Amino acid sequence: MKSKIIIVTGGARSGKSAFAEHYLMTCKGRHAYVATAQILDEEMAERVAAHRCRRPAAWQTFECPAHLPDQLANVLETADAVLVDCLTLYFSNFLFRYEAEIDGVVMSAAEEEMRHIIEAVKQRADKTVVFVTNELGSGIVPMEKISRLYRDIIGCINQYAAAAADEVYLTVCGIPMEIKSRQIMLPMEERQ
Question: Total domain count for the chain?
């Protein structure tokens, strides 16, 4: 049986991680948590500590701020159900590694990285991988160029991940809603 990809998205503090954790608890087998955050200040340390307190002690934890495709392949050797929290932080780290590059190069590299992440899951059978990500760009256009590039990268990788996913959930005000099954499929336009 092919592996299952789940995307959980929403705004900041919308309940994404809590829902993803509960979802993973319903999965059978060995569980793993892949943390993509880097603890660079006290506030981030507090956020990480809060996440750790919510997770069952039996879950394996892997820290992976970079090189997720390779690390994910290794995690899937020892776990059947994996939560990656989150793609937004992972691609923030990714962007800072490529910040000296031209925008188009960075965007292409991010899209390629996301493709490799999805391939790492699809190469394994009978696994469930839940990816948490943020839904950005619903507000004003950021004033800084780097912020606009980051928003665009996240929008593109979210679209790619959701297209590859078996299920996609949107959390709003702590309420998760399944949205993939409700997507509108327009007929293909005939080309002349």
Answer: 1
